[in-house]
Every structure is written in structure tokens, then in C-alpha cells.
Design goal:
The complex is a heterotrimer.
Chain A lengths: L18 H19 L6 H6 L11 H11 L4 E6 L5 H11 L5 E7 H4 L9 H17 L6 H19 L1 E8 L21 E8 L11 H20 L3 E7 L7 H17 L3 E7 L1 H4 L5 H4 L2 E5 L4 H14 L8 H10 L4 H17 L7 H16 L4 H13 L7 H8 L3 E3 L5 E3 L4 H5 L5
Parallel strand pairs in A: 1-6, 1-7, 2-5, 5-6
Antiparallel strand pairs in A: 3-4, 8-9
Chain B lengths: L14 H16 L4 E3 L2 H19 L5 H4 E5 L4 E6 L12 E2 L5 E11 L2 E12 L8 E6 L13 E4 L7 E2 L5 H12 L5
Antiparallel strand pairs in B: 1-6, 2-3, 3-5, 4-5, 5-6, 6-7, 7-8, 8-9
Chain C lengths: L4 E3 L1 H9 L8 E5 L5 H12 L6 E5 L5 H9 L5 E5 L6 H9 L1 H4 L5 E5 L1 H10 L1 H7 L3 E4 L8 H15 L3 H9 L7 H9 L7
Parallel strand pairs in C: 1-6, 2-5, 2-6, 3-4, 4-5
Helix pairs in contact in C: 1-2, 8-10
Classes of the chains: A alpha/beta, B alpha+beta, C alpha/beta.
């Protein structure tokens, strides 16, 4: 590590620092910069803006996503991958790459806007519609005619009701007098009907679960069509990027949310790019390839080329300023090619080295963090799951039709190295084999 | 002609006059006694946090969790200590400055509802070797002394154990600010 | 086997503080009860170079959307979430699905019992991924004066003033000593705060 001295000579009382002081301050600064670069929870947008992302890590997937969205309006593409594989980053890069001249793009993290756990059909459309109305208004403000503005406002109001619900006042007539009563004077049209108003709250789609009504979605499609037609008149194809749907780790949940909504978007010729959980590739039920124009799988980075790429990720973030080559190798190997795990362990190893008073991050710090990551994966596993992992390691066979096994994949205890090759996460494997109790 | 002390007429003060004035000063200083917010444990954490930040700023690496200690006395009493009672030479339990200076202190508190009265304290800052004066000590007594001229309620020892000059009763944090930003030559 | 280090708040914060401002940190703190959360919050505020305030948020009775709302305003302070013990699988699944809604620039501490940690690991894989290896057992506040240190200080006081403990107490009872800081300290160490 380079030492730099700051010694200011001057009159008595001037500030002087010892070498040791300066070393400590510099060291802290170095480690702090390192921690900032290796932050696994930093928003993907910030990481991209800071130039820390290797854009060609996934063979420029984002370019191919954007190109298809541009050339095939209305196409629907999925980015599928395990937790922490870099799906959001690729989606954001694709948005950045998309030709903004011909497209009106919307990036929507649905999970940041509404409770997805209660989400059913219609909620994606509601969210999309509201974003679209606002974006059209912002982007085309000066070009819209009064008639266009009215269409936009009307659609927005109806979409807002659809999304957030509305209050209706309904007249309830009195029913005291039974019909056909001979003592009842004949009804006069001039009479005021007797009764009262009652207020009903009609819930919207962006709230705790309501039953999905087909006619609701059909009616909102009309409003959406008004807006997409408006965009098309100005030569703009609408493309929506949905992030967060990969949190719906159970495939049936994913489909219940996207099925109808994505069909409506297709009918409107709205391009869709969305993240999806790894379970949709392997879960029982719908064949994902039948429902999307393209399904891109972001697999863990393994193989020799993969390990080199992982090292490039570290270099890109200037990790080699503090990481010893041996530590880098250990972290890359133990990450199993899962990007977030690599970044997490790199950060953790840095923390350990700093606390230990070391100037470099060494193999011993890397090994300690590998053990901690493995332990975090071991935690919460039952004996049957551990046995299943041992079985996988021994026989290399892994039956994904079993929901039990699918859960191991979704929670990243098992990693998919190809469509047919599955392995126990390398950080977890030694603990499973050693019979360590969770 | 004899005059009343403090009457504005110049004259020679007798020690008796001086003691009376010192008593009056002590009484005034006594009304300024500070109260610290929060529980005693919270104050201990704040004092330690203050020293942690200074440690970082100075680039020293002290084992602050070991050298700063507290004692929950019976009832509502609480004490905070840094370093030994008597300075017998360089020891790891002091807060050591890069200049070689060192600090020790003890603070006594009484908890009262959601705040604490500062009962007394002793802050001892020893300059590096060959410095004159050798040390500065800032004390707050538990109660006014019987001879406030010799020993004011709140006072500073400017390098001598027998010389005590009055000062306002500072809070412990205010004392520490003087230590870290006035007395320690690294930052003067 | 817990698989995490038992650290004091001071030690945990030494690690966290290194991450700097706006680090979007997610950390799990494991303790048998939430009693220590307030102490930890005070340590976090005192020890951090950053100016962010600290809140303890009890999520007892809150829906997932309510929790997200409490974390959003403000989003830059540090929050310690308590009340996560004994939660159902459905709760954890819902929280996990809505992980994005919990994201913020200030640190987020999940204050968990050991059982709650296991539940999180079982049912909330997205949250678990964000926490990663940042799981620490809370061993409480360190710094209490040991009996050995107490005896040492009492011995030094006795030697310096050439008085026994009993002599001091007798003089204090007769109001025959001044309230100098050393005598105050001495009486308190002897458990005679009534004489101060």
C-alpha cells in the first residue's frame, strides 16, 4: 500500500500529523471507497451511472433486448434468472439502449408502487396506464391538441379509478309500501321518489386483493387504447419495462398476475420487457416459451470464461487495489457465478480485513466470508432438504418437477449451470457435506 | 477608610473580602450547573461516541470499548471512567494523542427522570514530556468547598495541584471540546 | 451453531460505519428480545460520523404496505425494525415479494430472535439475499466496570489519601470531608451514593 505523508511545517501551533495518523486516515479512506464500490444493495441505476457495470458481461444482452423491442413493436420478452443474477441491471441497460426517437418507454417497478402479494389481474395494466398517461403528458405536452388533452385526462381519471378505486353514491329507494296495495294512492310521475343515498367504496386494482373481473379489464383496455393510439399518432411505439415480477417466486402466482394483463398489452401492440423468477422456466404448468417472443435466461457465470468475467467485475470496481489475487480467486469460485453473492462476499471480506487491521484483503478474509455465506444458505434448511442437496451432489440428478426441489433452486441453494446441469451452491456445499447443523 | 468589597472604590482586598467574593462567585456558578439529557447509559454511549469520532479524526486507533467504562451505582448514581485514577506514566488505558499527550477522566451523574444532573467530574490532560505546564486538570466539585477562594466549585488546575482557578461549570462534552480543540496541539 | 458472530453494538457499528453514507445497508441483528434495540439505536446515533437520525419502528399489527410507508418518510435515516418475531410464513412471503418497497438510502436493521432469523431464511429469499452475510448476534452493551477494576480504583484512592474505606465513610457521615471529585467517586464505588 502506498503511504503518503502530509507534514505541514510552520509556526508553533500549526497542524502536524504523524506518519501513523496519516496512514490510518488514508487506510480508512481506501477501505471506505472499496466498500462503496462493493455494495450489493446499491440501486442498480446508481451502479450503472457510476460506471461500475460491465456492459458486455452478458454478451450485450441488453442490446439484443432493445433491438427486438425496437424492431418488433408489441413483442414480449422475459429476463429470467435467479435472485441476485443481475436481471434489473440488464433491464435498465436495455431501457438506456432503446432508441428513444421512436419509442415511448416506461420503466415500472411494480413492487415499489403496490403490494404485489395481493396482486391479481389488472394491477399491471392499472400501473402501466397511469405511467403512460403521465409520460405522454410530459413528453408531448407542447404537441397535444385540446381534444388530445381531454382524451388523456378522461383516460387518466378512469385509469385512476380502476387503479385506486372510487366512491359511488347510489340511491336506495324506500321499500316500505308493498306493491299492489289497494290503499296506496296511484303513483304520480311528479312525485319525488322516496329513499336515501348510500355511499359505496369500489376498490381498485392497486389495493389488497379483489376478485379479477374480466369485464373490468376489457373496459380499461379501451382507455389504454386511447392513450397508445395517441402515442402512435406521434410515431411513438410504447415499450414498458416491468421490474419486480421476479419476486413472485411461485410460478402460479407469476402467471396469475401477468397472464391477462400481458395479453391485453399484446393486443395494444405495447412492447413488454419483464423480469421473471427462475421458477417459470422449470415449474409445472404453462410453458413460458409459448407465451413470450423471447425468453432470456441469465445463468450463473461459471466455466473458465465465467470466472474470468467475475474477475473483470472485481477489476471494474477497482477491487484489486485491496484484494489479493488469492482472495479474488476464492471469492469468484465460491460465489457460484451469482453476482450479488460475489459483491456481498467482496464487501464482507473487506470489512473483515479492515477490522483486523490489515492493509490488504487476504485469502483468510475471503475464506471467512465464504463460510459466512455458506452458513446463511444453510440457515432455515431442514434435514430433508440437506439430504436432497447431498443427493444432488452425489448423483448429479435433480428432479425439478418436485416443488421441494424447485424451492431449493428458487432460494439459490441450488444453481442452474445449464438447463440440465444443477449444482449445490459452492459456498454451501462444504457445510452440507460436513454435516454441519443449520 | 474601610469600604465594602465590590463597592467600586479601589482598595486593597483582605483575604476575608476575597473569600466573600469567592463565595458569591461560587453561588453564581452553582446556578449554572448543567443537566444532560437522556438516561445515564445514553450519556455514557454519547461520551464514548464522541471519543470514537475523535479517534477517527485523529487517525489513532484506540481500544475505546475497553478503556471507557461505566459503573451503575446504587439508586440513581452512575459513573463514567476513562483511564486510571492516578497517572503513573504511559498506560494503554488512557486516551493517547498523537503528540504523546494523554487524557483520563471520571464523571459522576445522578439520574432524574429523563435527564441527569452532573454531580462532579475530573478531567486530567497531561501534555507530552517536556511541556510546560505539565498538565491541565478541570474539576467540578460535588458541592461548594468550605474555602471557595482556594477551591472554587468549578475550577482549572493550570499545571499545579495546589492552584485552582475558577471557570464556568462546563458540561463534560464542553470540557472534551476544549481538550480536543484547544489543549491538544495537533489541532490548535 | 448460530453461524454469526456475537458482537456488541459498538463492534457491529464499527463495521457498518465503514460503509459510509447512503449505503442502503440491510443488516440482521439477532437478540433474544427487543430490549436492546433502544440501546443499539443510541449507539448508532452516537458512533456514526453521519448526521442521520435513528428510529426504532415496531411493526406489530402493521400490514406490509404500512411498513413500507413508515420506511419511506423519511428514507435517509436509519431504521431498526422490531416486532418480527412469531410472524407467519405468509407475512414473510408478502414482505419478501414487496422487498423493493422497503428499499431506502438509510440503513435498515432487522431486529430478530433466532427463530425469526430462521423464518426469514426459509420464506424470504429476496430479503435474505439483500442481507447476505450481514448477520450479527447482539451481545449487548460492553463497558461495565469489572469488580477487579473497582477494587483497583478503591485501592488507589485509599493509598492516595491515606484513608481506609471505613474512615472515608465515617467522615462523610459527619460531613467532615469536602466533595472533591475523588471523594465523590470513592463513595459511589463503595455504594454510598446516599452520602453524596
Amino acid at each position: 500500500m502506498r503511504l503518503s505523508f502530509v507534514v505541514i511545517l510552520g509556526s508553533a501551533g500549526a497542524r502536524q500529523m504523524t506518519i501513523s495518523q496519516q496512514t490510518n486516515i488514508e487506510r480508512r479512506k481506501l477501505f471506505r471507497n472499496y466498500m462503496k464500490a462493493f455494495n450489493p444493495t446499491a440501486p442498480a441505476r446508481d451502479v450503472i451511472a457510476a460506471g461500475m457495470v460491465l456492459k458486455d458481461l452478458r454478451k450485450n444482452l441488453h442490446q439484443s433486448l432493445a433491438a427486438r423491442a425496437d424492431l418488433e413493436p408489441g413483442s414480449q420478452q422475459l429476463i429470467v434468472g435467479g435472485i441476485g443474477s443481475g436481471k434489473t441491471t440488464e433491464l435498465l441497460l436495455a431501457e438506456e439502449t432503446l432508441n428513444q426517437e421512436n419509442s415511448l418507454s416506461l420503466f415500472i417497478d411494480v413492487t415499489a408502487e403496490t403490494d404485489l402479494s395481493g396482486l391479481n389481474s389488472g394491477a399491471l395494466l392499472a400501473s402501466f396506464g397511469l405511467h403512460l398517461a403521465r409520460t405522454i403528458s410530459d413528453r408531448l405536452k407542447s404537441k397535444l391538441s385540446d381534444a388530445d388533452r381531454q382524451i388523456g385526462q378522461s383516460s387518466f381519471t378512469k385509469l385512476k379509478e380502476f387503479g385506486f378505486g372510487k366512491t359511488e353514491h347510489i340511491f336506495i329507494p324506500d321499500e316500505d309500501e308493498p306493491p299492489f296495495d289497494e290503499d296506496e294512492p296511484p303513483f304520480d310521475d311528479d312525485d319525488e321518489p322516496s329513499g336515501h343515498y348510500q355511499t359505496y367504496r369500489v376498490a381498485g386494482k392497486l389495493q389488497p386483493p379483489m376478485p379479477a373481473l374480466q369485464r373490468d379489464i376489457e373496459s380499461v383496455s379501451q382507455e389504454l387504447k386511447s392513450l397508445t393510439d395517441l402515442a402512435l399518432r406521434f410515431g411513438l411505439d410504447v415499450v414498458v419495462f416491468f421490474d419486480g415480477l421476479d419476486r413472485l417466486v411461485q410460478p402460479e402466482k407469476f402467471w396469475s398476475v401477468v397472464d391477462q394483463d400481458f395479453r391485453v398489452l399484446r393486443s395494444l401492440r405495447v412492447g413488454v420487457l419483464s423480469t421473471a423468477p427462475i421458477s417459470v422456466l422449470y415449474g409445472a404448468g404453462k410453458q413460458v416459451a409459448d407465451h413470450f417472443d423471447r425468453v432470456h435466461h441469465i445463468a450463473p457465470l461459471v466455466s473458465k470464461a465465467g470466472e474470468d468475467q467475475l474477475k473483470s467485475v472485481i477489476e471494474r470496481r477497482q477491487g484489486t487495489a485491496l484484494l489479493d489475487p488469492a482472495a479474488t480467486s476464492i471469492l469468484c469460485g465460491a460465489s457460484g457465478g451469482v453476482l450479488r453473492d460475489l459483491i456481498t462476499m467482496a464487501r464482507d471480506a473487506g470489512e473483515g480485513a479492515y477490522i483486523a487491521g490489515c492493509d490488504r484483503i487476504e485469502a483468510v478474509h475471503a475464506e471467512a466470508t465464504v463460510n459466512q455465506l455458506g452458513t446463511s444458505y444453510l440457515r432455515g434448511l431442514g434435514p430433508k432438504q440437506i439430504e436432497a442437496l447431498r443427493h444432488l451432489h452425489k448423483t448429479k440428478s435433480f428432479d425439478l418437477s418436485s416443488a421441494f426441489n424447485a424451492q431449493l433452486l428458487v432460494t439459490r441453494r441450488v444453481l442452474e449451470y445449464s438447463s440440465t446441469e444443477f449444482r449445490v451452491h459452492p459456498a454451501l456445499l462444504p457445510l452440507v457435506l460436513a454435516g454441519t447443523e443449520p | 477608610m474601610a469600604t465594602t468589597s465590590g463597592s467600586g472604590r479601589l482598595g486593597v482586598s483582605t483575604i476575608s473580602d476575597a473569600r466573600k467574593l469567592a463565595q458569591s462567585l461560587d453561588a453564581r456558578l452553582g446556578t449554572l450547573t448543567q443537566v444532560v439529557e437522556g438516561s445515564a447509559i445514553a450519556f455514557f454511549i454519547r461520551i464514548r461516541g464522541y471519543l470514537v469520532k475523535q479517534d477517527r479524526r485523529l487517525g489513532t486507533k484506540q481500544n475505546l470499548e475497553e478503556i471507557i467504562q461505566y459503573d451503575e451505582g446504587p439508586g440513581d448514581k452512575f459513573q463514567i471512567f476513562l483511564g486510571p485514577l492516578i497517572d503513573k506514566g504511559q498506560e494503554e488505558s488512557f486516551f493517547i494523542f498523537p503528540s504523546g499527550a494523554r487524557l483520563s477522566f471520571s464523571i459522576a451523574l445522578r439520574e432524574r427522570g429523563g435527564e441527569c444532573d452532573v454531580l462532579s467530574y475530573r478531567f486530567h490532560f497531561r501534555f507530552p514530556n517536556k511541556h510546560s505546564p505539565e498538565f491541565v486538570r478541570i474539576d467540578l466539585l460535588g458541592k461548594s468547598h468550605s474555602d471557595p477562594l482556594a477551591e472554587p466549585f468549578a475550577h482549572i488546575h493550570p499545571g499545579s495541584h495546589s492552584i485552582r482557578l475558577p471557570c464556568p461549570p462546563l458540561t463534560p462534552i464542553e470540557v472534551l471540546d476544549r481538550v480536543f480543540f484547544v489543549l491538544d496541539r495537533n489541532t490548535r | 451453531m448460530t453461524g454469526y458472530k456475537e458482537l456488541s453494538g459498538f463492534e457491529i457499528l464499527e463495521r457498518i460505519e465503514l460503509r459510509g453514507e447512503d449505503a442502503h445497508s440491510w443488516i440482521a441483528i439477532v437478540a433474544n428480545s427487543s430490549d436492546g434495540a433502544a440501546i443499539f439505536a443510541t449507539e448508532l446515533e452516537a458512533q456514526s460520523d453521519l448526521s442521520a437520525a435513528v428510529r426504532v419502528v415496531d411493526i406489530e399489527g402493521l400490514l406490509t404496505s404500512d411498513i413500507a410507508g413508515r420506511l419511506r418518510v423519511p428514507s435517509s435515516d436509519h431504521v431498526i425494525l422490531v416486532g418480527l418475531d412469531g410472524r407467519s410464513k405468509e407475512f414473510w412471503t408478502s414482505l419478501d415479494i414487496n422487498r423493493s418497497a422497503l428499499e431506502r438510502s438509510g440503513a435498515l436493521f432487522f431486529w430478530l430472535t433466532p427463530n425469526a432469523l430462521v423464518d426469514l431464511c426459509r420464506y424470504a429469499p429476496n430479503i435474505k439475499s439483500f442481507i447476505g452475510t450481514a448477520v450479527f448476534g447482539f451481545s449487548g452493551l460492553k463497558g461495565a466496570l469489572s469488580d477487579k477494576k473497582r477494587e483497583e480504583r478503591l485501592r488507589e484512592l485509599s493509598e492516595k489519601f491515606r484513608l481506609s474505606d471505613a474512615d472515608l465513610i465515617e467522615r462523610a457521615e459527619k460531613h467532615a470531608i469536602e466533595r472533591e471529585p475523588e471523594f465523590v467517586e470513592w463513595l459511589l464505588l463503595l455504594g454510598r451514593g446516599d452520602l453524596v
